[in-house]
Amino acid sequence: MTSFPTPRDLIAPTGPEDDGSVGGEREWELALAIECSGTGIWDRNLQSGEISYSPAWKRMFGYAAADPMHRIEDSYTRVHPDDLAMVQASIEAHLRGQTEMYEVQHRVRCKDGSYKWIVSRGKVVSRDAAGLPLRMTGITHDISAQMALAEQLRHSAELLTNLTDDMPGMVYQYLLGADGGASFPHASAGIAAIYELAPPQVRHSAAAVEALIHPEDLEAYRASLADSAAALTRWRLEYRVLLPAQGLRWRQGDAQPRRQSDGGTLWHGFISDITERKHIEAQMRQLATIDSLTGLPNRRHFMQRLEEQVALLARGLEERAVVLMIDLDHFKEVNDRYGHATGDLVLQHFAALLRLELRKIDAAGRIGGEEFTVILPGADAAAARAFGRRLQRRLERSPLAHGAGDIAVRVSIGVAPMRAGEAGVDAALLRADLALYRAKAGGRNRIELAPD
Questions:
Q1: Residue 91 contacts by C-beta under 8 Å, 6 or more apart in sequence?
Q2: 53 pairs with which residues across the strands?
Q3: pTM of this structure
Q4: Per-residue pLDDT tens for 179-191?
Q5: 245: number of Cβ within 10 Å
Q6: Could you give the 3-state DSSP secondary structure of residue 322?
Q7: Which residues in the chain land under pLDDT 70?
Q8: What is the DSSP track for 45-77?
């Protein structure tokens, strides 16, 4: 059997030989260092089929120094069955000179039957005249702790990935490089729902995402990221996207930036779908501004529109506009005779016919009871009278069907041209209201113009 070629065969380095040799002491120190490092050493005699192990190697796997372990073929029985073919193939490749060094990670069975992960490195150190390998020497390190940690990290990464992929949104990293290039180094599976993309499509470039952002929101999107990068402040933005399958959707981004060593900025964040919330917000705004019965703007919203019109006239952006006050004639009698439910139908019927007469630039609203108002931008008194007559004729042609008969709907109208110099929005309304009073007093179903 080939003895292990180290001082005292690296079996029990108890001290240097007292032979006065400096080289002998250095070899002993090297052997002691290897022994204390926990590194196992093995040496194969490829002609005799024998193998020698250092004490440290044997201790690594729970064997005593005296335990007989001399045959190469026996060494393969300790290799985990799942790793055996790989180990044998790696050794054979090195013996044939196909690799510079033999190196492989695999599992080895200990004396107690358990397995340890090791990394084994070796090299043929001598060959015969024909180039056939004679001897191979190598080292073994126990990497069980590292492999256990790697497995734990892998499980943690899988858990985190599963958690983020199951979230109703997109967990991501967004990188804005020092050169201005942008990408998503990490994107969870939620990117499929958020952007209808797959992670590889954005890993090296964010262009595919920017192509989906609504054109009206793209500038704000880019500017908000630039501001966040410059000040390293949290990025928050609500923006729209246009997706091939889902169409127009709302997204909310929230991320924290960090400066990178190369001058770039990396955000860690989350993007969620807020489309439903935006729809609810729009409905709430509508409820706050729209008369629920007729669907026309309520008094508050109409007054805002009137203020806007007054401001346009004051700045000279429009030359003229007219306000009309409209009141349904004999509406109290309708309620008394048919009931309030029918009265509501009359109001809805009138509002529907009124909309048919409005231009896109016109505004109308219900300001209370059976009173309605209209703004006609760019119109004068004559155009307002013509509008009123068309509305009255439409009402005459379209009574409200009710039971066996019809309910005629008639209106009185007061017209007041708006004046650029008037203070506040109430002045024109007051003059239109006075003209309406004159129309009522004059017999109803009339149109009266407010005096200058």
A1: 102, 122
A2: 42
A3: 0.50
A4: 999 999 999 888 9
A5: 5
A6: strand
A7: 1-38, 156-167, 423-424
A8: ETTTTEEEE-HHHHHHTT--TTS---BHHHHHH
